[in-house]
Each structure stands twice: as structure tokens, then as C-alpha cells.
């Protein structure tokens, strides 16, 4: 089963990770990549850095953005390989313990042949 985890840091958290957090995150990424649990990860730049909302309504495409203000800033994402929802939650919780205050939205990715 594959899952996408989208991380939103707590707005009060402040700046980037310190060196100790970066080292711990590096170890976690290396471990979960080697085990096959982490397939892809990346940071997401603020919407002011070229973000856009592309919308289709009645066959017409509109584009808004980039945006100068945002209430929630997505910090990053991860594509996970897990045997179960519970395992994906456990992997996400391990990430949050290193990343700090914030939350992750975890959703299963529909794969070819999935009927659910």
C-alpha cells in the first residue's frame, strides 16, 4: 500500500530545523529509504514562490497565483510504502517527532487494480 503524507508545520514553530534536527532527520530518511518504506520526499516552497491554483469550471481553465499570503503553509510531503494504514501512521508519527510541532494529512494512494 502506498500513502502520501503532507506536512504542515505549526505556524508558531518558527524557522528552519537546527543542525541536530537536520542530522536526526537525515538518519530517519536514510533508514526509511533503505527499508523501502520511504519512496520519495521533498520540501514544498511557499505559494509566493511561483505557486498557482489551476481550476476547471464548465470546461474553462482559470489560473490564480502566485499568492503572497497563506494561512497554512505546506512544508513538505512523503510517499510511503506500508503494509497497513497503521504502519503508515507509525512512520508519519516518527517523522513528526523529529520535525516538530505540526500535522500531517495521510491519505492512501489509489493504485492500478484498487477497487476502493
Side by side, the strands of the main sheet go: 2-5-1-6
Strand content: 25-35%
Ends distance = 12 Å
How many E strands? 6
Domain unit count? 1
Mean pLDDT: 88
- The helix content, as a percent range, equals 25-40%
- What is the CA-based Rg, rounded? 16 Å
User: Which blocks of ≥5 consecutive residues have pLDDT under 50?
Assistant: none
Number of helices: 2
**CATH class bucket:** Alpha Beta
Q: Structural class of the secondary structure composition?
A: alpha+beta
By CATH, the architecture is named 2-Layer Sandwich
Helix-strand string: EHEEEEHE
Q: What is the CATH topology assignment?
A: Alpha-Beta Plaits
Query: What is the fourth-level CATH superfamily?
Result: Dimeric alpha+beta barrel
Question: Can you characterise this structure?
Answer:
The chain contains 2 helices and 6 strands. With 116 residues, it is of the alpha+beta class. The protein has one domain (2-108): Alpha-Beta Plaits (2-Layer Sandwich). The strands form 2 sheets. Strands 2-5-1-6 form a 4-stranded antiparallel β-sheet. Strands 3-4 form a two-stranded antiparallel sheet. Strand 3 (53-57) and strand 4 (60-64) form a beta hairpin. Helix 1 packs antiparallel against helix 2. The longest helix has 16 residues, at 19-34. The radius of gyration is 16 Å and the shape is flat.
Amino acid at each position: 500500500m502506498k500513502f502520501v503524507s503532507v506536512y504542515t508545520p505549526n505556524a508558531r514553530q518558527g524557522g528552519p530545523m537546527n543542525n541536530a534536527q537536520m542530522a536526526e532527520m537525515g538518519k530517519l530518511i536514510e533508514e526509511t529509504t533503505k527499508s523501502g518504506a520511504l519512496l520519495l520526499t521533498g520540501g514544498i516552497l511557499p505559494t509566493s514562490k511561483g505557486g498557482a491554483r489551476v481550476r476547471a469550471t464548465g470546461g474553462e481553465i482559470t489560473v490564480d497565483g502566485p499568492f503572497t499570503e497563506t494561512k497554512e503553509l505546506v512544508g513538505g510531503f512523503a510517499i510511503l510504502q506500508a503494509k497497513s494504514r497503521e504502519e503508515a501512521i507509525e512512520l508519519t508519527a516518527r517523522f513528526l517527532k523529529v520535525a516538530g510541532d505540526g500535522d500531517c494529512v495521510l491519505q492512501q494512494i489509489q493504485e492500478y487494480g484498487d477497487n476502493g
